[in-house]
Amino acid sequence: MPNDFLSFFLAWMSSPRRVGAIAPSGAALADLITREITASTGPILELGPGTGAFTYKLLKRGVRQEDLTLVEFGSDFMKLLQVRFPGARVLWMDAARLAAHRLYDGAPVGAVVSGLPLLNMSTRKVVSIVGGAFSYIRPGGAFYQFTYGMSCPVPRPVLDRLGLRAKLVDRAVMNVPPAAVYRLTRRPQMKLITGSLAPDASTPVAPGRQTSRDCTTAA
Ligand SMILES: C[S@@+](CC[C@H](N)C(=O)[O-])C[C@H]1O[C@@H](n2cnc3c(N)ncnc32)[C@H](O)[C@@H]1O
User: CB of 34 within 8 A of CB of 19?
Assistant: First the structure.
């Protein structure tokens, strides 16, 4: 893994809010955010790869470059990513536009790894990014996000709106500054009305009550 401090620092100087850190993530954080990913995870979408601190770790875990899509908005990092990961799909785009482009046929993605500085973004933008990413994540897949903050950087109302839950994977206290990684997954869907509890078609139902057997709600 090359020493990218200078190029990263210069990118931060020109756009501090977008880059969100003065140095690339260290080995401990890269290890943590990719910990649950293996070669069999399948297609992986990486958001905000920067100089590739997490990308290198994914390759070490056996992920094939052909399974990687890297979405980066900083023109300063584009050439470098294309040279370093020639087998990966490298896209120069705003991650908030994920849903506007058809990046995949269907939803095959096993994991999203995000280095995006979500705390510097509006709630609206966070909804677009996380919602767009989940439109490509297959059932059982996960979105991994790191933060320098003390809690999950995706606010609770956004999780509720998107039907997601967040769980702390762990903290990388050796990273400078210390960071934490959260795993976002879909909430399990529970059937509200089943079998003999379901009203038959002739039963009057109070306004606002669910009548369909197929109605589901997030837990
Ligand atoms: C904190 S750096 C993380 C870089 C790298 N993942 C690491 O951990 O060293 C954030 C990265 O997200 C990129 N970024 C910021 N906003 C973005 C957006 N809307 N879409 C795509 N990339 C974005 C920045 O250019 C930068 O490369």
Answer: no
Residue 18 region, left (φ>0) first, then alpha (ψ -120 to 50), else beta?
A: alpha
Predicted model pTM: 0.88
Residue 95 alpha carbon, nearest atom of ligand 1: 20
Q: What are phi and psi of 203, to 5 degrees?
A: -80, 125
Residue 89: strand pairing partners: 69
Cα 210 to ligand 1 centre (Å): 43
Average pLDDT score over residue span 135-157: 98
Whether 73 has a pLDDT exceeding 60, the answer reads yes
Overall CATH class of domain 5-187: alpha beta
Mutate to test the pocket of ligand 1, among 1, 6, 18, 25 (most ligand atoms within 8 A of CB): 18
Q: How many CA atoms are closer than 13 Å to the CA of 125, on its beta-carbon side?
A: 12
Beta-carbon neighbour count of residue 184 at 10 Å?
23
35: its two tokens = 């910990």
